[in-house]
Amino acid sequence: MKTFLRILIICAIILILVFLSIGIVRVVPRALSSLASATVSLGSVFGGSSHATTTTTVTSATSTNTGFITTTNATSTATSTGVSTGYNNYVPAAGPNPLSGSTYTSTNTSTNTGTYSTACTTGGYPDIAVTILSRGIITSYGQFIETNSFTTSDTVSVKFKVENRGNCPTGAWSINVQMPAQSAADQTRTINGGSYLPAGSAVTGQANFTSPRSGSSSVVITATDTSGRDANNANNTASSALVVTGTGTTNPGTGTIGGYPVSGDGRPDLTVRVVSVGTLDYNNNFVPVSNQNFRTGSRVAVKFQVINQGLSASGAWTFKAEVNDMYQPRVYQNPQTESSIASGGSATYTVAFDNLGIGSHTMSLYADSYDQVNEYNEGNNTLGVNFYINY
User: Which of 98, 94, 110, 106 is nearest to 59 (CA)?
Assistant: First the structure.
């Protein structure tokens, strides 16, 4: 009896493992294009307009109607049949399609049957558009950290949205992403979005690539609608400019000091980099988390570095951290002056806030908060970290 029970338990475990493996295989993005270390992914379509879903069923094969036809929003409400044209348009078989609220007399004779869509009235068009949502880096913990500071060793991530701002569905559509990666294999990705994008709907996406090129460049994202009816081609492309710190061409030799790339005109240059996001326990030990969602009551903490990527020592400096909480900023200004950071050197800190309200928050970190340092680049001293407090 015991042997039989053991066999049943083993079989049950095997079945559970098989079920889980099938479930894991099925959890994939809606669309994904990847090669080497660059990936582009799309999420699920959200939103949408009733214009994209309304249909009317033809009830008679042949009919004749003479009289007044009243229209609303340029779509015929007559019960007689008409002609179903391309791009889901419906127009009467005879006479022009009337404007909203007008009447006219016509004679309609039609032999088509089935279902036609009133989604797209005469004169309607799709309008596919691309918008950049945010940009940042993917940390070694797999976290997205929004930032404007990049180095050639980073994994760059750009989040974007593709939407149909028109009043008609698109045809089959796709996106092309140009990325300034050092590797030629990672510089271009094209991904199919689907057979159509409904009017008023949108889909979000994310493009990631490693080892960006040094200097100024851009990530360029272009959406294409194969219907050829796009109402506005000017908004099909969006770009996100990147300034990437390279190998320090102004500092001949290795191009790094202390393992960090250095550059500039001889002055110091302080910049902020996030090491990890997590919580502080009751003993003030830092505990990293795998995402940016925290329970209410957590002491949300960010471990960060201030790096001097300039060519001279920083001298004395200060930092502060700020969190938006219930529409009121909470500020921690470091009360003491920090020691000078040598060229290529860094200092690591952890700052935490507790009793934050439920909802979305941003912790902003500021190096040289009193503007004591004469820097090569004053624009890279600030970094924001987004997170969410749950019940």
Answer: 110
Query: Of 328, 327, 330, 318, which Cα lies nearest the Cα of 364?
Result: 330
Q: What is the pLDDT of residues 349-386, one digit of tens each?
A: 999 998 888 888 899 999 999 988 988 888 889 999 99
Position 334 scores a pLDDT of 83
Structure-block tokens of residue 168? 């008609």
Whole-model pTM over 0.70: no
**Average pLDDT value for residue range 154-166:** 93
Structure-block tokens of residue 41 = 């992914």
Residues with Cβ within 8 Å of 326's Cβ and at least 6 positions away in sequence, in order, are 357
What is the spatial distance between Cα 14 and Cα 202, in angstroms, rounded to a whole number? 41
Three-state DSSP class for residue 12: helix
Is 274 buried (19+), middle (13-18) or exposed (0-12) by CB count in 10 A?
Answer: buried
Buried b / exposed e over 203-227, threshold 16 CB at 10 Å, is: bbbbbbbbbbbbeebebbbebbbeb
| Residue reference for tokens 């902003």 | 364
Mean of pLDDT over the chain = 74
Query: Look-up: residue for tokens 């799709």?
Result: 126
Task: Work out the angle at residue 362's Cα, subtended by the Cα atoms of residues 359 and 368, and round it to the nearest 5 degrees.
Answer: 160
If one counts every other C-beta atom within 10 angstroms of the C-beta of residue 267, the result is 15
Count of residues for the chain?
391
Predicted local distance difference test score (pLDDT) of residue 148: 77
| CA–centroid distance for 203 within its chain | 9
Banded model confidence at residue 101, pLDDT cuts 50, 70, 90:
very low
Please tell me the distance from the alpha carbon of residue 201 to that of residue 44, in angstroms, as a whole number: 10
Strands 38-42 and 201-210: antiparallel
Residue 85 has pLDDT above 80, yes or no: no
* Phi, psi for 299 (deg, rounded to 5): -95, 90
Helix (H, G, I), strand (E, B) or coil at 106: strand
Q: SS3 of 174, please?
A: strand
For 149, the 3-state DSSP assignment is coil
Contact (CB, 8 A) for 201 and 249: no
